[in-house]
Fold this protein.
Amino acid sequence: MHKLTWIEKLKQAAASIHAERIDELAVLDTEGVILEIGTGSGHLLTKFTSAGCRVVGLDLSLALLRKSRPAPCAVADAQHLPFAGDSFSAVVCCHSLEHMPNLPSVLAEVARVLKFSGHLIVVYPYEPICGITLIGNLSTWPEFWKVHRHKFTPRRLRQVVTLHGLTHLASRMYLGYNPMYISCFIKR
């Protein structure tokens, strides 16, 4: 049996915290399908499938997706989602949207694949300075400073997302392994 590293244990614990906060903020439709953009190794997908949700994961990295496949996954760029319009009851971006180089294209695609009344849920770090969180990603020191292309606050994220026809419902701050935000939007 594979012994989990401390990084893997931290990621699993973080996925549990994120799933709890997502559940508090948005009612996920277990009859619909959820798209997680930036799935990575699938820690959050595992939490969703355990809760009875149908989920599809999407990531650019085939190597990460191969580590854990608790649900169907696709290797694709979020700027060109390989799904029909109005396919998903929710789209979740957990610590992924801040990495996207072409944010307007990604958000246009999210709006396209979301069903009417579908939710976009975004989890993102509290960063006093772009790329610098309270603790940072110790496993990639000092490279973690370079990976975030966007610094979001709830206000800034609301300004960007609402340009794509989504309505802001709520934003909250919570403490995971770092202070972070969660924001929820709806397609009306």
In short: The chain is about 30% helix and 30% strand.
